[in-house]
Amino acid sequence: MAEKVRYYLEQTVPELDDLQRRGIFTKPEIASITRRRTDFEHRIHGRGAKLLDFLKYAEFEMNLDLLRKKRIQRLGGGGGQPDKAGTSVSTWSGQQRIFFIFDRATGKFKGDLSLWKQYISYARQQKARHLLNKIFKNVVRLHPAKPELWVLAAEHELRENANRKAARNLVLRGLKFNPSSKELADAFVKLEEDVKRAVEELEAKRKQDAEQDKHDGESDEVDHESGAEPSDDGEQETEDGDD
């Protein structure tokens, strides 16, 4: 256990050095952060680790990351010396650590649905679309008899990935495991209605575009014909000029 704790804490050194170098946290504050993280890591690696230990750890890191953002704003946005892209090693490390805490928590407490929902909620807040793909894949595999999770996964595919086919397949898979679920049945009906509406809108747009193309073609033809023959006035002016 001690080796694991030491390893994870060593991974935070570059981030903490960066935060101190940029003047976001003071040296005493960095020492306090290290002590808190050490305590949390020992707790979650202990034999008697509880879900609450993971949740408190995640909450601590969320508050810390929020404080970091506030101080960067107060310092004028940069907070010392960011790299050329305007970011530094500490920019995303807080978010990634919180993801890692949730990942370890769901690995240990696979059956706790409220934990999975908190993980999903945080990933949504951070707009971590690719991570959400992974989370939903795992959670419906572990909890196939929970209709609400299939619905959440389908909504993610529809709204975030714009993938109606994947959303439909998820609902159908969910119905195989939960054939009497009204929630999934309603989701399927709504999804089919959305697909039908989208197809109708697409067909209407195609028809409108075709009519516009036809109109443009007729206009071009009229313009071409009107410019093909010289006017009588023009010929008369030429003759008058010759005289």
TrEMBL record:
User: What Pfam families does the record tag this protein with?
Assistant: U3_assoc_6
Q: Which GO terms describe its biological process?
A: maturation of SSU-rRNA from tricistronic rRNA transcript (SSU-rRNA, 5.8S rRNA, LSU-rRNA)
Gene Ontology MF terms in the entry? snoRNA binding
Q: Name one GO cellular component term.
A: Pwp2p-containing subcomplex of 90S preribosome
Q: rRNA processing as a keyword?
A: yes
Q: Tell me which residues make up the U3 small nucleolar RNA-associated protein 6 N-terminal domain.
A: 9-96
Q: Which residue intervals make up region (Disordered)?
A: 202-243
Q: Where is the composition biased (Basic and acidic residues)?
A: 202-217
Q: Which key words are in the record?
A: Nucleus, Repeat, rRNA processing
- Record keyword Nucleus present: yes
Subcellular location per UniProt equals: Nucleus, Nucleolus
Q: Which InterPro entries match?
A: TPR-like_helical_dom_sf, Utp6, UTP6_N
Acidic residues: which segments have biased composition? 230-243
Q: Spell out the protein name for this chain.
A: U3 small nucleolar RNA-associated protein 6-domain-containing protein
UniProt source species: Lipomyces tetrasporus
